[in-house]
């Protein structure tokens, strides 16, 4: 058996890399990065989301990579009221929330929205800060 320690990065297949970069940088506050062969990604914490254009897939890839098929839960330390205000100020529609859910480390309260490709993005805050992502 092997032992997996953590998630390093994930790949999103997107229709337009620049449009996705703009959303993740300006709406979700992630840092855009460029790496080998001019590939693009966004970084937050110690994780990276690599953005691959559906028209220029990188081998190897998923069996059926299509834009809009992901469902991600991202954890924030910000008050969800502040997140809601930021989303509304940037004309980002909130699909659902705030709603109570269960995160990896305990109860969370979440907002749901969609990125430009239709991926479902959950922005969550741990109800008990002691149970946040560092636990």
TrEMBL record:
Gene3D superfamilies: 2,3-Dihydroxybiphenyl 1,2-Dioxygenase, domain 1. Signal peptide: none annotated. Residues 6-126 form the VOC domain. SUPFAM superfamilies: Glyoxalase/Bleomycin resistance protein/Dihydroxybiphenyl dioxygenase. Keywords: Dioxygenase, Oxidoreductase. Pfam families: Glyoxalase (PF00903). InterPro entries: Glyas_Bleomycin-R_OHBP_Dase (IPR029068), Glyas_Fos-R_dOase_dom (IPR004360), GlyoxalaseI/FosfomycinResist (IPR050383), VOC_core (IPR037523). It comes from the Bacteria. GO terms for molecular function: dioxygenase activity. The keyword Metal-binding does not apply. PROSITE patterns: VOC. The keyword Cell inner membrane does not apply. PANTHER family: GLYOXALASE DOMAIN-CONTAINING PROTEIN 5, GLYOXALASE FAMILY PROTEIN. This is Catechol 2,3-dioxygenase. It comes from Actinopolyspora xinjiangensis.
């Amino acid at each position: 058996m092997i032992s997996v320690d953590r998630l390093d990065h994930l790949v999103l297949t997107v229709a337009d890399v620049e449009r996705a970069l703009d959303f993740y940088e300006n709406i979700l506050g992630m840092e855009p990065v460029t790496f080998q062969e001019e590939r693009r990604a966004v970084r937050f914490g110690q994780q990276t989301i690599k953005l691959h254009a559906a028209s220029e897939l990188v081998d190897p890839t998923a069996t059926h990579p299509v834009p809009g098929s992901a469902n991600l839960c991202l954890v924030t330390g910000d008050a969800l009221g502040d997140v809601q205000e930021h989303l509304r100020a940037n004309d980002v529609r909130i699909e659902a929330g705030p709603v109570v859910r269960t995160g990896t480390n305990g109860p969370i309260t979440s907002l749901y929205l969609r990125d430009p490709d239709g991926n479902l993005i959950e922005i969550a805050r741990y109800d008990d800060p002691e149970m946040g992502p560092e636990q």
